[in-house]
Design brief:
globular, binds adenosine monophosphate, alpha+beta, 434 residues, 20% strand
């Protein structure tokens, strides 16, 4: 309870609290991108416009909301996305609509509605747009996020799986993102998958008592999903579960081998991950995911696979397809990290004086040749002033070359963040890691 005086003359802090309570804020899990913070987004958008075009892909844009049935039938009612995460609402006409949680089903809908395949046996499309999922927000996980994706529709052949994977790989390459792994697996054709699911279910049933609560539920609706559970108890059980790759028939094996041969021929590095199943129901044969260790628990940068049954599930003609969706928000987080480390490289200042002008220039040259950005003094200022400028400029390191250093063939290295300093021999500059 506040005093009468406080009530009559509330403090600035109390006033601010009241104001904040009445101020309307953005919805949880959504973000404002303020002026000056969009450069890396533009970079991804620029790559999106250039790289898919190199492979013959054209852009498609679909509405932000669709009839709910599209996702129920296309993505699958047993998935987390449809079961728990969709923004579903009735419009004033009484139709159930959903903010799109992904773009493959909408793109497939547009293709069949507009009969886009009549003119070309293979359709190559890319998209960039907002998706919405009601998930618990954290770094890298939002309720509105952006996906960049591509779909190659009309071919049942492994060449198109390999093409789509190479397109994803090329996008990362063009962006300069290298700190990720491309995981590859096969979910086989429906026949093998059905046999495998039964075997897996039998195995899981034997260990049901030790499974997590969510895997106990998932086991009945889609046993494959227990394979990518993050729960430690489930992981222990999954270790010894039957593996789908032992259940591929000749057709499925041939398909999987062919995808890998092309990736190898094009030097696309990948690892086989036989527990990769992906969260959406429509996949068969190839599935893949780009994962990274540098974003904590939200480790998936994107993924995709082949979906030969999707078109039929949403009421169209049987049409094979393969595609991926990349999470742009997470890619931008990766690019931010890259920028930070790039900035670190720019932050060496070489402090020299009349005893060391030439030597300083030579050391700077050596470091620049090694990829470091080095700033040298051209104003003939005192050591103190040079050091002050280096700190002001946000430099991480000062390399000091004074008379003593010249005489002892050494150089002093000062860490400007911690003020620690040490000396190394000049000959060690060739290999020293900052
Ligand atoms: P999915 O089709 O669910 O695998 O999604 C493809 C990619 O979109 C994921 O690998 C993530 O990079 C990204 N993504 C999915 N959900 C979210 C989310 N809630 N917030 C941010 N990115 C997401």
């Amino acid at each position: 309870m506040c005093s009468i005086n406080e009530a009559l003359e509330p403090s600035a802090e109390a006033q601010q609290k009241v104001q904040e309570r009445f101020m309307i804020k953005n919805v949880k899990g959504t973000r404002d991108f303020l002026p000056g913070s969009l450069d890396l987004w533009h970079k991804v958008e620029d790559v999106a416009r250039r790289v898919p075009a190199l492979f013959g892909y054209q852009e498609i844009r679909t509405p932000i909301f669709e009839y709910t049935d599209l996702f129920k039938r296309g993505v699958g009612e047993g998935t987390d996305v449809v079961g728990k995460e969709m923004y579903v609402f009735d419009d004033k006409g009484g139709d159930s609509l959903t903010l799109r949680p992904e773009l493959t089903a909408p793109v497939a809908r547009a293709i069949q509605q507009e009969n886009l395949l009549r003119a070309f046996p293979t359709l190559r499309l890319w998209y960039y747009g907002a998706c919405f999922r009601y998930e618990q927000p954290q770094a890298g996980r939002y309720r509105q996020f952006q996906q960049l994706g591509a779909e190659c529709i009309g071919s049942p052949n492994p060449e198109s799986d390999a093409e789509i994977i190479m397109l994803g790989y090329s996008i990362f390459k063009e962006l300069g993102v290298t700190d990720y792994t491309l995981n590859l697996n096969s979910l086989a054709n429906l026949h093998c998958r059905t046999i495998y699911k039964k075997e897996l279910l039998d195995y899981l049933t034997k260990h049901e008592a030790d499974l997590s609560e969510s895997s106990k539920k998932r086991m009945q609706t889609n046993p494959l999903r227990t394979l990518d559970s993050k729960d430690e108890r489930d992981k222990e059980i999954v270790k010894n579960a039957p593996r789908i790759l032992s259940y591929l028939d000749e057709e499925s094996q041939r398909h999987f081998d062919a995808v890998q041969s092309i990736l190898k021929a094009c030097n696309v590095p990948y690892v086989i991950n036989d527990t990769l199943v992906r969260g959406l129901d429509y996949y068969s044969h190839t599935v893949f995911e780009f994962t990274t260790k540098s974003l904590g628990t939200q480790d998936a940068l994107g993924g995709g696979g082949r979906y030969d049954n999707l078109f039929e599930q949403i009421g169209g003609k049987a049409t094979p397809g393969v595609g991926f969706g990349l999470g742009v928000d997470r890619i931008v987080l990766m690019l931010e990290k890259l920028e930070q480390s790039a900035n670190k490289l720019e932050s060496i200042w070489l402090i020299s004086n009349e005893f060391s002008r030439e030597l300083g220039a030579a050391v700077a040259t050596t470091l620049r040749n090694r990829g470091y950005n080095v700033v040298t003094d051209v104003q003939r200022r005192s050591f103190k002033n040079q050091l002050t400028s280096a700190s002001k400029a946000g430099a991480s390191w000062a390399l000091i070359l004074g008379e003593d250093e010249v005489n002892s063939h050494s150089i002093t290295i000062k860490n400007l963040n911690t003020s620690e300093q040490n000396s190394i021999l000049l000959s060690e500059v060739q290999t020293y890691e900052f």
